[in-house]
Amino acid sequence: MNRRELVEKIHKLHYNYDLFSKENNLKNTSYDEIYAQILKHPQKENYILTSNNHDLFDKNLLYFFSADEINSITKLLNGSQECFVEIVKLFDTYRTNTKFMSNLKIDINENICDLEADGVTILRNIFSDKELSILCDFEKHLSAKSEELFGPMTEKASHYKTPLVLNNNQLAISSYSEKVLPVNHGNTRHNSKNFKGYLTLHPGCENLLFKKEIETIVRYYFKNTSSNQLDLYQQTAIDWMYSAPYLSTPWHFDNYMTQLKIFIPLEDVEVDMGPFYYAKKSHKYNSDIEKYMKHQYFINKFNYTHGRLDRNHWPGVCKDYGYEIATSILSDEHVDNCHTQLNKDPVNIKNNSYEKIIGTAKKGDAIFFDVCGFHSANLVQRGIRKSLMVYTDHKKLLFSGRFFDFICK
Ligand SMILES: [Fe+2]
After folding, report:
1. Which of 178, 201, 219, 394 could form a disulfide with 401 if both were Cys (CB 3.0 to 4.6 A apart)?
2. How far, in Å, CA of 242 to CA of 182, rounded?
3. 129 CB burial (10 A radius; 0-12, 13-18, 19+)
4. In the predicted model, what is the mean pLDDT of the chain?
5. Cα(255) to centroid of ligand 1, in Å?
6. What average pLDDT does this structure show over 249-277?
7. Residue 140 confidence (pLDDT)
């Protein structure tokens, strides 16, 4: 398969052949033939699939891409950055052009526009203390119990596991375990996927994530009105960020395709409490470094063996502890990964200047960001930054997610 054929097939994936055949009384007509007819139709946009039609998209995937072809597509995308970028952009063009009707009266248009244009937006004062109370109580319980069992969290960075069991119909934490990381970069994390099947989300999240404004922004970004509420979210994580000598995360991106996360502070995040940085507009494939890094990530997937060993922000750590740079981390050559002082200046990433968003926020706010864009941590100078990180399910909700999942299996 060559580039032109692949691009055409990606277009073909986006049409509703069942609907067109039914309306035009077509029987025993191949999808390719129907596609040719759709293109001649004056209202061809009426037959474009919306992300509500996952089943039809999957049917198209199986129809247009045979198992034999998958290898040649991967080879083509690995071998040509230009082709890869064209395909990702094509999926994104279909996503952004899809109309989304919301009957929500409250005005969140500005947030939706900012999120699309910049890759980040802050929704202010959306949750009351009461709405946050179950989650905050759970956080207090977890951190108190963890400190009792494992000692002060400030002296290390770690991951906690707390599997859940059902006792007399009551959900209870069955055991605690802790994996301490070799370098104290201040971040301790508790992930809902460690509940092992009982809950996808931390207790108290329903109040927050199914609140109309939050759900609408997520659905708008994915242009999805029909999926089950629970299918929107993949997992949640409680993060405790302490003062530590090293940044927990240098400049990086999480994915080569659109993926939305929500940062919900459980206490105010002031300027000296480690608010994150986000490089505005870096979620699109505009600059050479965005194209290069994301293509490399597509080729090598997330791993530590294709990274570089020259980062300064963890001096000595890489070699001493066997840490290498993951494929999605920007090298020290390209950006300052050692920043210790917060500033509002644009960030320079391989000769590209990006305006920054500083993630300061009040308890009650929610920050939405597309993690296909570049972002980084900041050192905590005072207190503890406590937050909930929410992972939306882009692999389920987006056609690009479904396509790349399909070819990467
Ligand atoms: Fe990230």
Report:
1. 394
2. 16
3. exposed
4. 90
5. 9
6. 94
7. 96
Give per-residue pLDDT as tens, 193-252.
999 888 889 999 999 999 999 999 999 999 988 888 889 999 999 999 999 888 888 888
Q: How far is the CA of 371 from the centre of ligand 1 (A)?
A: 6
User: Encoding tokens for residue 13?
Assistant: 């994936």
How close is the Cα of 375 to the center of ligand 1, in Å?
6
| C-alpha of residue 236 to centroid of ligand 1, in Å | 14
From ligand 1's centre to the CA of 368, what distance in Å? 12
Residue 306 burial (10 A CB sphere; 0-12, 13-18, 19+)? middle
Determine which helix (DSSP H) or strand (DSSP E) holds 248, and give its type and residue range: none
Q: How far is the CA of 252 from the centre of ligand 1 (A)?
A: 6
Distance 50 CA to ligand 1 centre (A): 28
Residue 132 has pLDDT above 80, yes or no: yes
How is the chain split into domains, by residue range?
A: 3-79, 109-408
CATH 2.60.120.620 assigned to 109-408? yes
- Bridge partners, 164 (sequence order): 173
Q: Could you give the CA distance from residue 31 to residue 8 in angstroms, rounded to a whole number?
A: 13
CA dist list (Å): 128 to 10, 20, 229: 44, 47, 21
Q: Quote the pLDDT of residue 106.
A: 66
Provide CB contacts within 8 A for 350, sequence distance 6+.
287, 288, 289, 333, 334, 335
pLDDT at 305: 46
pTM: 0.93
Residue among 197, 219, 188 at smallest CA distance from 389:
188
Question: How does residue 307 score in pLDDT terms, banded at 50, 70 and 90?
Answer: very low
pLDDT at 306: 41
Radius of gyration of the chain (CA): 23
